Structure to design on (97 residues):
C-alpha cells in the first residue's frame, strides 16, 4: 500500500509542476531546456521550442509515473481479489452440519 500511495503522490506532484519526483535524467533534460530558453530570452528571441521541449519532459515523466501507478494499483487489486477468493473458498469448503 505504501508504494501505491508514494506513486500517487509523485504523480500528483508532477501534475502540479513540481520537479522532485523526476529522475536525474529527466531533471537534467528539463534544466537544459530551461537554460536554452533563458539564453533565447537574453538574445530577445522566441522561447517556443525550449518551452515545448520542457513541457514534453514533464508530460513524459507524468506518463511514466501514471504507468507505474497503474501497475502498482492493479497489483494491489489483484492481491485483494485473491485474498477474498481464498476466504470465500474457505467458507464454502466447511460446513457446520
Amino acid at each position: 500500500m505504501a508504494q501505491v500511495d508514494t506513486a500517487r503522490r509523485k504523480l500528483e506532484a508532477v501534475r502540479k509542476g513540481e520537479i522532485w519526483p523526476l529522475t536525474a535524467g529527466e531533471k537534467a533534460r528539463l534544466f537544459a531546456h530551461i537554460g536554452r530558453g533563458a539564453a533565447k530570452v537574453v538574445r530577445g528571441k522566441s522561447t517556443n521550442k525550449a518551452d515545448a521541449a520542457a513541457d514534453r519532459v514533464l508530460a513524459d515523466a507524468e506518463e511514466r509515473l501514471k504507468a507505474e501507478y497503474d501497475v502498482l494499483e492493479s497489483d494491489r487489486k489483484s492481491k485483494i481479489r485473491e485474498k477474498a477468493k481464498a476466504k470465500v473458498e474457505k467458507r464454502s469448503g466447511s460446513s457446520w452440519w
